[in-house]
Amino acid sequence: MGHWIHITRALSVAALVLCSPATWAQDGMEVFEEVDPYTKGDPERMAKLGYVKFGPFLWTKTKRTGEVCETLGNPPALWVETAHFRIGSTLGTYRPGADRLEKEKLKEELARLKKKLGRVRFPKKDLDPWLRLHLYAQRAEDLYSQFQEDFDLEPADFEDKGEFLGVEHKFLLLLCQRKSELGRYIRAEYDGDPAPSWRWGTGDDGGVFLGLNAEDIASGWSGDGMDLPFDTFMHVNVIGSLTANLLDNYLHNRHTAPRWMRYGLAHRYVRAVDARWVELAGTMSGASGDEDAWKWAPRVLNLVKNDFFVSAPDMFSWQASDELKQRDHMIIWSKLEYLLDECNGNHAAFLNAVCDGKAQDAAGSRKIQAQALQAHFDLAPTEFDEAWSKWVKKVYRKR
Fold first, then answer.
1. Model pTM score
2. Chain mean position to CA 370
3. Could you tell me whether strands 171-176 and 85-89 are parallel, antiparallel, or unpaired per DSSP bridges?
4. In whole numbers, what is the pLDDT of the chain averaged over residues?
């Protein structure tokens, strides 16, 4: 599933950042380097990273990155357009703490970046603003690729609706350091109240949007005295919300995709980043005194043994997040794992069927999903539950 990459040489070096250096130094703000120190704006290096261009570029159908920067209050800002995303970042330098798993994760991610870039030297301790931009570009594209891989998607499965998973425009990701920046954007663009994160749109106006601000997200940490591995904390928040944007807009379904799949996929991808994060809201194993809270497999096994889990028909009927109990999140993670990794069937056809946008209520949603499961996996909902239960009893006792 290749994607054609065009490099705009004239813009690559001279105009990577849109806010003036004089503005950056105000209010104690960190000064960002004008030119990316890792690609130097070189088209070959940019192509190896899968980049189309650095800023400035068209953010939506009517607004450019310079206008977005003004809306944010003219902070230091970096911009990159990848194969499937347009990304803006005002995130400052980050120094990892003592968390071993975060350090290992970053080491692996940076090694992958370095392999693409060739001979380049990264800072020994810090993640500078440009490096953070590169990491989030890599993370976003990794998620997009994993989504396509999980459902065996090819362009023919969605391109009649739009090039980007059935949406006409690339997905937008705005990473803000300060809550005031995202707050200004939300008020100006959506007339909404400031929030730690904000998802919006169906792609009609130039892109499905996700914005997050580090200041608010950090203030919501519930670690009860534990050190915050903040890069991981931010990473899982981004992945969880981006997953929802990909699924809720696949085939331009306008947020009618199954609710259980939205949360199940988010758990699948967040746990792949760091399984200790048991909620998207920021609870990590140990924060509540339970060091094993992240170990979901044995808990699911106990629920199955006691026949105490949500059935597939009830799961197919969910319309809102408040219908899910805590144990339901573990169950849907496990059922989706089984469906995607163990069941023989047509994953793409199933996804297309349940994302056709026709479900208007719980009964309609349940009917569409049951028919899709039968048609593309040759399983009735009750048969799916029975097969999944047997698999859990066989596999999870070893985990």
1. 0.91
2. 27
3. parallel
4. 89
